[in-house]
Structures are given as C-alpha cells and as structure tokens.
TrEMBL record:
PANTHER family: LIPOPROTEIN YIAD-RELATED, STATOR ELEMENT OF FLAGELLAR MOTOR COMPLEX
Keyword Membrane attached: yes
Domain of life: Bacteria
Native source organism of the sequence: Alsobacter metallidurans
Identification of the protein by name: OmpA-like domain-containing protein
Gene Ontology cellular component terms for the protein in this record: membrane
Domain spans labelled OmpA-like: 195-320
InterPro entries: Bact_OuterMem_StrucFunc (IPR050330), OmpA-like (IPR006665), OmpA-like_sf (IPR036737)
Keywords annotated in UniProt: Membrane
Length: 324
C-alpha cells in the first residue's frame, strides 16, 4: 500500500471512531441502505452500522468492527464509555465485576481486562506493546504452512460429529507448530498462516439462511457442548481468548459477504454468553466472507455458511509448545 493510500485509510478510520452507530440494523437490506462509501487515493472506505470495510489499491478487502458493540448489546445500561486522552474506555458492569475495553480513535483494540470486586485485574488481551500500524497490510504475517502430525479430522473438528470432550481436547491443544513470537489480536485476525497453528472446531451445527446472521431459536441448544468446553477451558485459565470466525458461501459480493460473516460470528458469540454464560470478554470475533470455503463451489452452500472457533491465547502470548 502506498503512503498516500495508507494515509487515506488512517483518515477514514478516524471518522466517528471508524464506525457508524449499529442500533436498528436488524436485516441485511437495512445494513446495505445505511452504508456510506468514500474513495481517496485508490482506497475505498465503506462505513456501515458497527463496521468499517476497506478495499485497498490491490482490490483486497479488510473488515474492522466496533469492539464494544457486543458488550453494549449485552449490558444495556450497565455499559458506559469514557474518553481518556486519545483513547475510548468502555466499562461493562457485571455482578460486581468490570470488563474494561480500551480502543484508540480508529477503533483498534488496545487492551481488555477483567476487574473483580477487590480491584484485582486479569488482563485478557493486550495489544499496547505494539505501535498502531499505518495500514491493514502491516498486520498480515506470512509464515510457512505448519506440518500436520495428526489426522486432519482432529485438526479441524466438525461440531456435529463431536462430543464435549473431543471439542475440549481440540480447543485446549497446544500449537501444531512453533510460534515465532508474540502477536497482536489484529495480526492473528488478518494472518491465516498464523491462525493455522491452532486446531479449530467448525460450528456446523448451526444452519444460517442465505443473507442472514440470525440463529433460529430451535438451533441454539446445538451450541451447548461447544459452550461447556469453552467454559471448562476458561475455568482452567481465566485469561483464555477464543476467536469465532464467520464464513459465507461464494454467492453475492465480497463486501456483503465480509459484513455478513462478521455478523454471524458475533451472533454465535452473543448466544454463547446469553444462553450458556460464557464470559464475553474471553471471546472475540472476525468475519472472512467467502475467503475460506469449506466446499469449493460457487453455488449456494449451507456447509460454507458457518462459524469456526479456535483458541488463540498461545498466539497472543507467544507460547511455543507444539502438539506431539
């Protein structure tokens, strides 16, 4: 990305914190109607409720979402945001605890922590050790593909064929290859080679309709085994971080699919918290649109309209013990 394009991205990200208000976005048609698009130095910036999508000079698209949206939807009046210098601090009050999320003016997550009644703090995500990059391109880490010494069906586990114990074994497993260093959350989000070092669970028990991020009420119970496994891991380590990755099929535009997939991931995260009491601070989400199809087809595909979960704590902390 050229210096002028990088500057354009930075300037756009500073607009209204990088996002439009998300209230009232209840359908994808509503999302489309509320989009605002600007172009500067070859970079297209699309603002939509709760999200910002960047299309760079090389026609690549990146998405960043409002890190506090999920907490505001969960907490209502129990969530407040304060301006402290050049940072936004959002505090979610829950049963005497405080979940504190710090973001910069572009919406980039700097830090998330949990404070108990006695003031003791557990830092869950800390990106403050690295200066903010000038462009999304700087967050992409290229690594060699990890060698697989386990069967592929144990590397990517289908939730509909797995019980709680297998899901827990998958998400609690160490990296399948060494982790060269500590990484930021955005580096993890935008680097498939890096994420590939952790095993994952395809949450294919949920069937999303075309153009929808809603989970039918009769399907939420299918997330019970996944939720129990995640809660078990958090009980062992209160600072665990799990990434929910949203995906779509190849039908529709790349911008629509990127936005839709991100909303699907956030829907699953919200259900895990509301219905199964998974702490929201231990979850984070990212949409990838049609980039990683499970079934290679351009046709409509329920198998491709899915969410994937993986533990990313070793990537954020630089833990380096590969699986045997």
């Amino acid at each position: 990305m050229s210096p002028a394009a990088a500057a354009a991205v930075g300037a756009a990200a500073g607009f209204a914190g990088g996002y439009m208000a998300s209230e009232g976005a209840r359908s994808f048609e509503d999302v489309r109607q509320r989009r605002r698009e600007t172009v500067q130095d070859g970079v297209t910036v699309i603002q939509e409720p709760g999200r910002q999508i960047i299309r760079d000079e090389d026609n690549r698209v990146f998405l960043r979402h409002d890190e506090t949206e999920r907490f505001r939807e969960l907490g209502g009046r129990d969530v407040r945001t304060e301006r402290r210098g050049g940072e936004q601090v959002t505090i979610y009050e829950r049963d005497g605890e405080q979940i504190v999320t710090v973001t910069d003016d572009s919406g980039r997550l700097i830090r998330r922590s949990r404070r108990d009644r006695g003031g003791r703090e557990v830092v869950i995500i800390d990106n403050g050790w690295r200066a903010a990059p000038r462009s999304f391109e700087e967050d992409v880490v290229v690594l060699p593909p990890p060698p697989l010494r386990i069967p592929r069906e144990r590397y990517i586990v289908d939730a509909d064929n797995a019980d709680e114990s297998l899901i827990y074994e998958t998400i609690a497993a160490p990296p399948v290859a060494p982790i060269p260093r500590r990484y930021t959350l955005d580096e993890v989000r935008y680097s498939p080679d890096l994420r590939a070092r952790m095993r994952s669970v395809d949450v294919n028990t949920i069937n999303f309709e075309t153009g929808s991020w809603e989970v039918p009420p009769d399907q939420t119970g299918r997330l019970r085994a996944l939720a129990q496994a995640v809660k078990q891991a958090i009980q062992q380590n209160p600072a665990e971080v799990f990434l929910l990755e949203g995906h779509t099929d190849a039908v529709g535009s790349d911008v629509d699919n990127l936005s839709l997939s991100d909303r699907r991931a956030q829907s699953i995260a919200a259900i895990l918290t509301r219905d199964f009491a998974v702490p929201p601070e231990n979850l984070t989400t990212q949409g990838y649109g049609e980039q990683y199809l499970k079934v290679q087809t351009e046709a409509p595909s329920r198998e491709n309209r899915r969410v994937t979960l993986r533990r990313i704590t070793p990537l954020l902390n630089g833990q380096n013990a590969p699986a045997q």
